[in-house]
Amino acid sequence: MRKSPGELRSHRWYGTDGLRAFSHRARTRQLGYLPEEHLGKPVIAILNTWSDINPCHSHLRERAQAVKRGVWQAGGFPLEFPVSTLSETFQKPTPMLYRNLLAMETEELLRSYPVDGAVLMGGCDKSTPALLMGAASMDLPAVFVPAGPMLPGHWRNEVLGSGTDMWKYWDDRRAGLIGDAELAELENGLARSPGHCMTMGTASTLTAAAEALGVTMPGASSIPAVDSGHERMAAASGARIVELVWQDLRLSRILTRDAYEDAVATVLALGGSTNAVIHLIAMAGRSGVELTLDDFDRVARTVPVLANLRPGGRYLMEDFHFAGGLPGFLAQLTDVLHLERPTVAHPTLREQLAGALVHNPDVIRPRGNPLADEGGLAVLRGNLCPDGAVIKHIAADPQLLKHTGPAVVFDDYRAMQATINDPELGITADSVLVLRGSGPLGGPGMPEYGMLPIPDHLLQQGVRDMVRISDARMSGTSYGACVLHIAPESYIGGPLALVRTGDLITLDVQARRLHLELDDAEWERRRAAWQPPPPRFPRGYGALYQEQITQADTGCDFRFLAGRGEVPEPYAG
Ligand code: FES
Ligand code: MG
Fold first, then answer.
1. Atom of ligand 1 at shortest distance to CA of 123?
2. Distances (CA, A) of 48 to 1, 23, 84, 277
3. What is the pTM of this model?
4. Closest ligand 1 atom, residue 196 Cα
5. Residue 373 DSSP class
6. Distance 204 CA to ligand 2 centre (A)
7. Is 191 helix (H, G, I), strand (E, B) or coil?
8. How confident is the model at residue 475 (pLDDT cuts 50, 70, 90)?
9. What is the SS3 assignment for 118?
10. Which of 45, 229, 266, 488 could form a disulfide with 212 if both were Cys (CB 3.0 to 4.6 A apart)?
11. Angle at 206 between CA 201 and CA 210, to 5 degrees
12. What is the ipTM of this complex?
């Protein structure tokens, strides 16, 4: 069933015979449009997260013009809406604090304006889940245009990964292996074009998840931001959304339980970012799909890691693109995917993947030659994390995956920074570094503090990995034996709040266990002595955040935002 122009949502604004519609038409003349340019056509909102401060999205202002070209070509009426930008690099304490704000902005903007369908433009880490969460709750037809990865970094004939190599060379600098001149050259070489991080960090993981969910054009997620193909993909997305509006193919038809399971399998087989766990659980919640940590652990045991991409592997996103991109990659996983579900581009995923090929079997590995036999994440349980924790074990020193050591506890990140290099702390390579006060409320915003620095004296001895545990997240470009997302967090009295320096902690990834050795009586003494910290935000967005935020294991969405639909349509007359 195709919609007629009179059935478009925007018809209520433009097409009726009342004073308001007269005003809306007059104001559209004011914008310089003829009646025949918009009346009876699908209105397509282009939600653009471009900003002068966001280098990952600096090409999106221009790219929105290509989306408009596609919309016009297909007989729609495009309107660009600037929405807030979530810059992983610049926004403090972390853009995670504001993911739900962009999700709210997305949903309410689509609801309150005469919009029939949406093109969502983003890619820097949280912008992908934020846009999709809001759009899923509003449930209009939508296409996601991923910002695309930046070009590979270069320095002195070395290929650099943004993020990953930033950490690595900063450690080299701290160890005295490189000086100021080298550092200045690295500043020029780490990120050499517009686009999001080009490792399999959080950005690439989430845009790949969006493609696996079926909300992008096929192959969209790996196209380098500055490749001409990116502009063509943007134009094709603009043309496609017009057709989706006529078909009334809403996100709720695309974002099903099957689609989320496939997205989980995809991020695990990519060896993707641990952040995807939180975001996919939150996104699924907006679609009315209950996705849990256990789903991730279950799928992780059935899919191998097939993408040889940094930080876990060798290559970068441009290599992945030319090796076949996500279509070639998903073609290796057809036995675990739900192939009969629709995508924005094809009636079924099966048709979307028909003919997809791998052109470089070292970048996209065949099933017989995986990078790792198990998916990229493990979900841990134990008395330190009754509601779960995650570890990206494929990016850790294998010797640390079963380890018992004495805790060295830091109450917050600043205290850790101030004291971690103090030899008096007696930190050895066997110590377990514990950071608390870094969860959704404690951080606040669960900053990417989880890859705690190795103390200087150990770095100089050549130590490059240690067991670190926290209620924080970790950058998707980070690596190491870092246990993350401990729930419940210490700020609300989770067991992490009770650990003391010297306590023995056992990590056993094979057994999926994180355990604090403490007898019951002592546990109870410490629990009785624990005092909750005072609320942090007296007013404003922060006050709403602290009232509504959920813990990591349920996706850190706001309680009142879960689910989709149900909000009444605004009266437009
Ligand atoms: Fe934007 Fe990495 S900083 S994706
Ligand atoms: Mg990141």
1. 4
2. 30, 26, 8, 25
3. 0.96
4. 4
5. S
6. 9
7. coil
8. confident
9. strand
10. 266
11. 150
12. 0.89
Ligand 1, atom 2, residue with closest C-alpha: 197
Q: At what angle do helices 180-189 and 164-174 cross, to 10 degrees?
A: 180
CB atoms within 10 A of CB 552: 28
For residue 292, the CA-to-ligand 2 centroid distance in Å is: 23
CA nearest 55: which of 231, 182, 225?
A: 225
Pairwise CA distance, residues 108 & 39, whole Å? 23
CA of 127 to the centre of ligand 1 (A): 10
The pLDDT value recorded for residue 1 is 84
pLDDT of residue 176: 87
Do 270 and 312 form a contact (C-beta atoms < 8 A)? no
Q: 174: which 2 tokens?
A: 């701290």
Ligand 2 centre to CA of 385 (Å) is: 24
- Average pLDDT value for residue range 395-423: 94
Structure token digits, residue 12: 């209520």
User: What are the b/e assignments for 215-251, b being 16+ CB within 10 Å?
Assistant: bbbbbbbbbbbbbeebbebbbbbbbbbbbbbbebbbb
Kindly give the number of the ligand 1 atom that is closest to the alpha carbon of 476: 2
Which residue from 149, 151, 152, 144 is spatially nearest to 49, judged by alpha carbons?
144
- Cβ < 6 Å from ligand 1: which residues? 56, 88-89, 124-125, 163, 196-197, 201, 203
Helix (H, G, I), strand (E, B) or coil at 29: helix
Which atom of ligand 1 lies at the shortest distance from residue 162's CA?
A: 2
The helix/strand/coil state of 507 is strand
Q: How far is the CA of 357 from the centre of ligand 1 (A)?
A: 28
Half-sphere exposure of 233 (CA within 13 A, CB side): 25
Q: What is the DSSP letter of 71?
A: H
Instruction: Name the pairing type of β-strands 432-435 and 402-410.
Output: parallel
Q: Which of 247, 50, 56 is nearest to 142 (CA)?
A: 247
Taking the C-alpha atoms of residue 229 and residue 222, their distance in angstroms, rounded to an integer, is 10
Half-sphere exposure of 28 (CA within 13 A, CB side): 22
Ligand nearest to the CA of 474: 2
**Average of per-residue pLDDT across 277-299:** 96
Report the alpha-carbon angle 116-23-13, nearest 5: 20
Give me Rg for the CA atoms of the chain. Answer: 24
Return the best residue to mutate from 89, 160, 222 for the ligand 1 pocket (most ligand atoms within 8 A of CB).
Answer: 89
Find the 110 Cα to ligand 2 centroid distance in Å: 27
Give percent helix, percent strand, percent coil of the chain, each to the nearest 5: 40, 15, 45
The token pair at 167 is 């950490």
